[in-house]
Amino acid sequence: MGMGVDIRNKLAKRAAEEIQNGMVVNLGIGIPSLVPNHLKKGVNVIFHAENGITGMGQSPIKGEEDENLCNAGGFPVTLNIGGSYCDSTVSFGMIRSGKIDITILGSLQVSQKGDLANWIVPGKKVPGMGGAMELAQKAKKVIVLMNHCDKQGRSKIVKECTMPLTSRECVDLIITELAVFQVTDEGLLLTEIFAQGNLEDVVNKTQCEFAISENLKEIPY
Amino acid sequence: MENPFRKITTLEKVMEFFHDGMTLMFGGFGGVGTPPGLIDGILEKGIRNLTLIGNDTGFPHIGIGKLVSQERAKKVIASHIGSNPFAGQFMHEGKLEVEFSPQGILAERIRAGGVGLPGILSDIGKDIELVAGNKQRVLLNGEEYLVEEALTAEVSIVFAKKADEYGNLIYDKSARNTNPLVAMAGAITIAEVEEIVPLGALNAEEIITPGVFVDYIIPTKGVNWKWAWE
To answer: What InterPro entries has UniProt attached to this entry (chain A) (predicted)?
Structure first.
């Protein structure tokens, strides 16, 4: 994503604040995979991986990787006590039947209505939707972590997505390196700005209009 | 080892079931859980024009990715090809047809094929043109659903941790993934396994795939590729 480690951790830390004790959470690859490092003490989370792990644990110590125990991105993981394995239909059964409290994904664009576009880079790459359509459409809460702008400096938060959609009106919360937006029935609501940022910058770098919360907060880190 | 059901055989023997232009379904997710010996056997026999059905196209040198990167497939039905750049390249060059299916729906289409159902009803991507396309729609209790067709194959190949002499299978951790579904959906199902044990050695309560679905069992020499993360 071309983002520094500090910024990646900043986004992951903010996303981790959304996770409450006992939730079932699915993390996408990339920045979302950093979220477990930022959970508060005493918060027990069941991490779900769509390749059939419920109760996924941390990365193993180097040298102790198990070639048959990986997350959905193919990276080695561990299983927490009480965890289990299942096949792909059961794993996606959990997703479609609404058992996933939060999914945290990356994206190419998000519209002011919460449309998500993250599975085709037009003219460049068609990686496929993988499990993103089901997660975006069915998880109780969809959080997007992404750069505010693309490499050309264009806003990734847009009036209408120009890239092929993954799912319509599914995103609940957008966290970028500048700010946090809630997606409401009336459109986007700016709720937080990261420290050292300013409102003018957020306005200039966001393509669509948005409302500003009366309780606009500054995130201290 | 006894062989009362004549299912235990060799790679050389099962290779007779593979031919050009066939439909092949494979277990695995990102290469994890894909049978390595069978993939190499297909490569060595020079099989071409395959229609491959499975979760993804692996990595160029891992799992089903080897067949894709060596241009042995004419079509793949998968949910993701992003980890194998050759798949994308061949698709853009018009050498490889790719049918994308949302991951869990793909798994259910395979399961449906394996359990004797013609298809399933789904609301995943029903308002997304690239998924809905020209698929038939059905009204059920006032809701509209897409009809997603079941998938079957001439041969299914799976990777398991243990098989007994009847072909009852257990898998290893997340290498289970699509294997139990793929095992049911082949007209012929071949399991490549890490260990073959006598009847009775597996706990009946722990068997994941009943041997009814498994036609042939071959021993594996183990995973022979380096994982992407190494």
So the answer is: 3-oxoacid_CoA-transf_B (IPR012791), CoA_trans_fam_I (IPR004165), NagB/RpiA_transferase-like (IPR037171)
For residue A1, the model assigns a pLDDT of 47
Number of domains in chain B: 1
Those of residues 143-162 in B touching chain A at CB distance below 8 A are: 161
SS (H, E, C) B107-158: HHHHHHHHCCCCEEEECCCCCCHHHHCCCCEEEECCEEEEEEECCCEEEEEE
Residue B61 has a pLDDT of 96
Do the interacting molecules here have an ipTM over 0.95? Answer: yes
Give B98's contacts in chain A (Cβ within 8 Å).
Answer: 126, 128
Q: Give the pTM.
A: 0.96
Does B230 fall in a domain?
no
pLDDT band at A2 (very low <50, low <70, confident <90, very high): low
* Cβ(A130)–Cβ(A71) below 8 Å: no
pLDDT digits (tens, 9 = 90+) for A202-218: 999 999 999 999 999 99
CA of B224: which chain A residue's CA is closest? A67
For residue B162, what are the domain limits? 11-219
CB distance from B79 to chain A under 8 Å?
yes
Q: What value does the mean pLDDT take over residues B150-174?
A: 98
- Which residue on chain A is closest to B32 by alpha carbon? A68
Whether B120 and chain A come into contact, CB under 8 Å, resolves to: no
